[in-house]
Amino acid sequence: MREGGRLIYVGAGTAGRLGVLDASECPPTFDIDPSRVVGVIAGGDTAIRTAVEDAEDDREGGADAMAAIEVTARDSVVGLSASGRTPFVSGALGFARAAGALTVAVACNQDSVIGRGADHAIEVVVGPEFIAGSTRLKAGTAQKLIVNMISTVTMVRLGKTYGNIMVDLRATNEKLRARAERIVMLIAGCTADEAGAALEGAGGSVQAAVLMLLRGLSAEEAAELVATSDSLRSALARA
């Protein structure tokens, strides 16, 4: 991803929706471009709200979906399937692997079909469902935890955090603006008024506001340093 690649989730039904959900939450949490974390679901966007049950059986459809978004060797494709044998996901991983992408299979059965066809298999055996056959329950919960881990650790490695603090959030509403202010106060050890003023001057950028407060930089200097650094920690070291 440092070289411009993407994190791509692909699945059908509940698993597909979990991938779409995780992808949709990355931009506001980590201020990453929506095109960098992508969720693909069998049946297309309609399947996010309405079940398109037969779409998961289309192996060629999975490959076509990867071709449509032009998967390359710089991308990482994570296939999600509770059973571990969904044809749509298997086809998508097969195409991605042939394209040279990093492939990961997330399943809830050991020695899964998709696991055997991926570079890495994450197989979490959760046992029989509380309601037999309803994989949105234990399997869905386990897969949600896994995609959380994948995206969160990826963003940490990309420098989107400072310690365990979000510093690249996109403050698009009052709640997030208040959170940004608290984050600046915590890192810079300043008052709410100082944090608010710095954020306003920095155009809402937490990292730039911190640099302005801790290093005495102008908004323009701070913005330039943020743009040319891979993390707030490195920006502070360079200032």
Give your account of this protein's structure:
It is a single chain. It is built from eleven helices and seven strands. With 239 residues, it is α/β, with parallel strands linked by helices. The strands form two sheets. It has a five-stranded parallel beta sheet with strand order 2-1-3-4-5, sandwiched between helices. A two-stranded antiparallel sheet has the order 6-7. Helix 7 packs across helix 8. The longest helix is centred in the middle third of the chain and has 20 residues. The chain is elongated. The mean pLDDT is 95.
Summary tags:
single chain, 239 residues, alpha/beta, five-stranded parallel sheet, two-stranded antiparallel ribbon, 13% strand
Brief account:
With 239 residues, the protein is of the alpha/beta class. Helices cover 50% and strands 13% of the residues.
Beta content: 5-15%
Oligomer: single chain
Strand order of the largest sheet: 2-1-3-4-5
Radius of gyration: 20 Å
Q: Helices and strands: which structural class?
A: alpha/beta
Give the total of beta strands: 7
Task: Give the CA-CA distance, first to last residue.
Answer: 26 Å
Q: List the helices and strands in order.
A: EHEHHEHEHEHEEHHHHH
Biggest β-sheet description: 5 strands, parallel
Shape: elongated
Low-confidence stretches: none
Considering DSSP H and I runs of 4 or more, what fraction of the residues is helical? Answer: 40-55%
The count of helical stretches stands at 11
Mean residue pLDDT: 95
